[in-house]
């Protein structure tokens, strides 16, 4: 499968690495921080570097792993590939890993509660890309844990939660989750992305108050609370 990663940040690079290992063709693009992209390509020779517009055009599936306050800028960089029924993303599966963060003048981050009360990043992305098939996924697992090697068999990795209105698109994302070493759970239509994003608020609250902000320790703890076995910590 051809996969375009529109913003190879921490999540994008983790998934790109896994999908390359699974035999997929991957083009990676970066919204700023080109040194990190260059280093990733050097460490992963199968990865093809490109611009956001090229990655959007390249992929049969396109990963939108974008810092939410930068969405407008990234969509502008993607350009005509994003817009309208005739755009390069028309008919493509677009995976949304984003969370609705807002940033203060002091660069403090918080979830945009007013936004979350009425919609989700996935619904907004679908509105902006009306001809694409948007699927919410990969936004509740910390990027450092989106590496199946952190979850050695027979212990289960945390599940990837999916939401989307197109069943075949969700099936493709489920396959890609499996290729990355994770199972996927279907939460229903795209509006369920609101619930998934709210869950991520809870994840961060638990990390902040119970684990001093250590998200790496949080995911196993949540699974223990749910009665699910977790990998050995080391």
From TrEMBL:
Keywords: Oxidoreductase. This is Pyrroline-5-carboxylate reductase catalytic N-terminal domain-containing protein. InterPro entries: NAD(P)-bd_dom_sf (IPR036291), P5C_Rdtase_cat_N (IPR028939), STEAP_metalloreductase (IPR051267). It holds the Pfam family F420_oxidored. Residues 2-100 form the Pyrroline-5-carboxylate reductase catalytic N-terminal domain. The lineage of its organism: Bacteria, Bacillati, Actinomycetota, Actinomycetes, Micrococcales. One of its GO terms (molecular function) is oxidoreductase activity. PANTHER family: DUDULIN-RELATED (PTHR14239).
């Amino acid at each position: 499968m051809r996969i375009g990663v529109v913003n190879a940040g921490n999540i994008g690079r983790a998934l790109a690495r896994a999908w390359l290992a699974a035999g997929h063709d991957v083009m990676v693009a970066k919204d700023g921080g080109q040194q990190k992209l260059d280093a990733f390509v050097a460490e992963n020779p199968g990865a093809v570097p490109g611009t956001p517009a090229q990655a959007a055009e390249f992929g049969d599936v396109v990963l939108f792993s974008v810092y939410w306050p930068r969405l407008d800028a990234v969509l502008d960089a993607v350009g005509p590939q994003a817009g309208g029924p005739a755009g390069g993303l028309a008919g493509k599966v677009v995976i949304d890993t984003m969370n609705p963060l807002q940033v203060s003048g002091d660069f403090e981050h918080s979830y945009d509660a007013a936004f979350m009360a009425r919609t989700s990043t996935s619904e907004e992305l679908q509105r902006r890309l009306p001809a694409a098939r948007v699927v919410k996924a990969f936004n509740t697992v910390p990027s450092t844990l989106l590496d199946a090697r952190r979850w050695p068999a027979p212990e289960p990795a945390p599940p990837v939660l999916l939401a989307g209105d197109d069943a075949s698109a969700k099936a493709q994302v489920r396959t890609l989750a499996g290729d990355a070493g994770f199972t996927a759970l279907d939460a229903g239509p795209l509006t369920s992305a609101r619930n998934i994003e709210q869950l991520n608020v809870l994840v961060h609250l638990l990390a902040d108050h119970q684990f001093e902000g250590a998200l790496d320790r949080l995911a196993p703890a949540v699974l223990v609370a749910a009665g699910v076995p977790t990998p050995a910590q080391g």
